Amino acid sequence: MENTKKFADTAQYIVISMGDEQFGVDIKYIDNIVKMQHITRVPNVASYIKGVINLRGEVIPVMSLRIKMGLEEDITTKNTRIIILRLEQYGMIGIIVDEVKEVLTLEESCVEKVVNDSKDDKDGFVFAVGKCEGGLVSLLDLNAVALERE
Amino acid sequence: MDVSQYLEIFIDETKEHLQSLNTQILKLEQDPENMDTINEVFRAAHSLKGMAGTMGYKRMQNLTHDMENVFSEVRNGHIKINANMIDCLFQCLDALDEYLGNIQESGDEGTNENEILIKDLNSMLTGNTGKAPAEPKAEVKAEAAADAGEKEKWKDIPLGDAENHVLSEAAKQGKNIIGLTVYVQESCILKAARAFLVFKALEDLGEIIVSNPSAQDIEDEKFEYEFSIIMIADCDAKKAIAAASYVSEIQEVVGSIMTPPTYEVVEVEKEEVIVEETVNVEVTENAPKKAEAKANNTGAEKKGKPVVNRTVRVDIEKLDVLMNLVSELIIAKNSLVSSTNAEGAVNVGVNEHIEYLESVTTNLHESVMKVRMVPIESVVNKFPRMIRDLQKKLGKKMELYMSGEETELDRTVVDEIGDPLMHLLRNSADHGLESAAVRKERGKPEVGSIFLNAYQEGNNVVIEVRDDGNGIDVDAVRNKAIERGTITAEQAESMSEKEIIDLLFLPSFSTAKQVSDVSGRGVGLDVVRSKIESLSGEVEVKSKLGVGSTWIIRLPLTLAIIQALMVVVGGEKYAISLGNIQTIEDISPSDIKYVQSKEVITLRGNVIPLVRLNQVLGIESTRKEDENMIAVIVKKGDKQAGLIIDELMGQQEIVIKSLGKYINKSKEISGATILGDGEVALILDTNALL
Fold first, then answer.
1. How many CB atoms lie within 10 A of CB B590?
2. Cβ contact B681–A40 (<8 Å)
3. I want to staple B512 with a disulfide (CB 3.0 to 4.6 A). Which of B48, B132, B179, B520 is the partner?
4. Considering only residues 523 to 582 of chain B, which have any Cβ-Cβ distance to chain A shorter than 8 Å?
5. CB contact, 8 Å: B236 with chain A?
6. Alpha-carbon radius of gyration of chain B
7. E strand or H helix at B475, and its extent?
8. Could you tell me the residue ranges of all domains in chain B?
9. Sequence-ordered list of residues with C-beta below 8 angstroms from that of B230, at least 6 positions apart, any chain
């Protein structure tokens, strides 16, 4: 992936948790992190698209990472956040995550690419695994996350 | 000073002049003797030449120069206008258009010299040029000489000690001191640019010591139509005058050698003046003629460009920013309204202020929208010329009648509407109108008519393209569709005429028997439709075989902010554009009838299909089965439908926001808007629901 080629030595990731697992989101794609708010449902779209929100006058689509990954529905808690990503191909997209934990700086040597077994939905979104003190962090391939699929 | 800052103005103005030339030459073709038109043409060509010259586009300047010569001869009555000449002139305009295209793209005019055109132009002139310039010259000479005295304003330049010193030093070294007064034409638009060029030309010859007004003021255009210069140079005054006069749009240059200020002005000078005057006349040969032309035309000129001083050219991007700010303001106003509503009418004073704010924002919005509006004139003006060319190409006789050119539309829409309209017109000319022979046989006038009408209808602008040609042959379309496999024969049987005609809008569907470069490549009508739909408009066609067809384009006046009806379906808020709504009806379940197992109601004699919005939107209705229902009757063209909703919320001004690239599958939703409480509400695309 281009994500890995670009950085020289280190890259920063926001660590989020989804269920029991920890994921890393490359910080350069993150525009904003907002608290859970009212999402306006959009009819007749893919099930993982939860709807749209108003972010300071902009209408931004929000998707559920859980549904996309084939996990059970989101349960909104006080820790639930929407991460606003800015992707070249799709513009701004929000993804709902259970919790945002910390910012993690990973050296290149700590990042190990994974070979995707496309059969498993969840693994398709992970392009590498980072090792840190707290354990393992699966690094998300955001373009794959955003990619349309049922 | 850099000329490139004028490039945009140059391009805009050149476009205007070319358009005016096109229109006027067309007029001239109808009425070759019309002096007003000839003068108009001459003036436009002349301005073009001047502008091209200033900007340094030599080829463009040459071509326009020769055109101007031709017009000048026509104006003097030495040549008569004939059909060949008109053709040639149109070709010249096309060539100029090409130059302009190149300039717009790359800032360079390209390398096409258009020698053939220039030769043609010159051959029109031959035999006529000998006498022409001589006569006015003599006349002018007297005139010029008469007021030469007061024209030499350079004599009034106040000289300080420093300047006096420099000048006398120069005189000692045997250099000439030259005083000049340069008169810029009053029609000149880029005065400062002209002055700059004069300065530049003179600096090649010597050194400019002082000018009045100062160089800085001249650069800032802080001068009337003349400025004076004193310079020192090795050459004589004749050369300096010639150099200054070479710059276009300079009406006149007067000047002579001046004696160093420390000495008295000696008599020699007077002789010089006379000599210079002759030179002056020779160099600026055109100037007096122009002045004369102007005098003749003051009336026409007023008509041609009445608004020059009252308009400002503004970058469309700046307007977009303004528009966005107004949108934000309206959203802010809406949230203020909703928050005071929520608290109840605590303070009457607050409500009053909010109402005031509301009227101000509404007016502000309207004004900003109006600023963005331009008449469709700028687009449709090129069509008469196009029809003329088509007439020659197709060998059919036709006439274009236009009305409502002053109808205004949003700038972005106007820019986009040209191509679809052109396509429809070509279509009418090519497919619609019959050949003269056939028309005669059918008892129609030999000359076919194409009408282009524009008018405003409620919140829409309607543009109609109508012809009195053959109309659409529904059977031919049906057969073609079956032949192409677009529809099956059985399908064709059950389709209405309207549905068959709609097939024309499918991609790659052309019924022209012969493929011409006018139309018939089968990429036409679907592009027209998609373009118009991308502008949130719609296109429909009415046709009668043998009588003609009418293409109707409906476009919304505004794109960004609309009046909408807010409704609730299953607890969710939706907006429906007020422009699409006809009425709102209260219906009881017993009113519902079934046609082909679909729900309909009869309303004032019309059978209207019902759409249960909760089903379309995939949500539970909050109303019970046996309760009365609210139906919003929407229309699209002559189609109607009743949308069943749960609650009415009221009318509101909403700002349309895009849902973004990511969500594009939902065809019932055309966009979103942000409500006063910050919540997002979706806008229903009623056209998709019909």
1. 8
2. yes
3. B520
4. 572
5. no
6. 34
7. helix B474-484
8. 3-133, 135-284, 316-375, 377-556, 561-689
9. B154, B157, B159, B163, B167, B177, B178, B179, B180, B208, B209, B210, B211, B258
Which stretches in chain B have pLDDT values below 50? 1, 127-148, 263-309, 515, 519-523
How many angstroms separate the CA of residue A147 from the nearest CA in chain B? 9
A118 has a pLDDT exceeding 80: no
Higher pLDDT, residue B521 or A71 = A71
C-alpha closest to that of B625 among B590, B599, B593, B584: B590
Phi, psi (rounded to 5 degrees) for A62: -125, 135
* pLDDT of the residue at B131: 37
Q: Which CATH class is domain B561-689?
A: mainly beta
At B439-454, the pLDDT tens digits run 888 888 888 888 999 9
Please, which residues have CB within 8 angstroms of residue B4's CB and are 6 or more apart in sequence? B107
Please judge whether B661 and A91 are an interchain contact, meaning their C-beta atoms are less than 8 angstroms apart.
yes
Q: Which residue of B has its CA nearest to A93?
A: B662
A49 at the B interface (CB within 8 A)? yes
- Does the annotation mark B427 as catalytic? yes
In the predicted model, what is the mean pLDDT of residues A49-72?
86
Could you tell me if A41 lies within 8 Å of chain B, comparing CB atoms?
Answer: yes
Q: Which of B223, B227, B237 is nearest to B199 (CA)?
A: B227
Predicted-complex ipTM score:
0.81
**Model's pTM, two decimal places?**
0.50
Q: Does B364 touch chain A (CB under 8 A)?
A: no
Average pLDDT of chain A is 81
CA–CA distance, B198 with B449 (Å, rounded to integer)? 52
B572/A54 touch (CB, cutoff 8 Å), yes or no? no
Q: Do A44 and B618 touch (CB under 8 A)?
A: yes
* Per-residue pLDDT at A84 exceeds 80: yes
Say whether B46 is catalytic: yes
Assigned CATH topology for domain B3-133 = Four Helix Bundle (Hemerythrin (Met), subunit A) (1.20.120)
Q: What is the CATH number of domain A2-146?
A: 2.40.50.180
B679 inside 8 A of chain A by CB: yes
Domain segments of chain A as ranges: 2-146
Distance CA A19, CA B2 (A): 65
Q: Is B490 a catalytic residue?
A: no
The pLDDT of residue A7 = 47
C-beta atoms of A40 and B682 within 8 A: yes
What is B377-556's CATH superfamily?
Answer: Histidine kinase-like ATPase, C-terminal domain (3.30.565.10)
Q: Report, as an integer, the average pLDDT of A61-69.
A: 87
Q: Considering B22, B40, B46, B280, which one is annotated as catalytic?
A: B46
In this structure, whether the domain defined by B135-284 belongs to CATH 3.30.70.1110 is answered with yes
Q: What's the pLDDT at B494?
A: 80
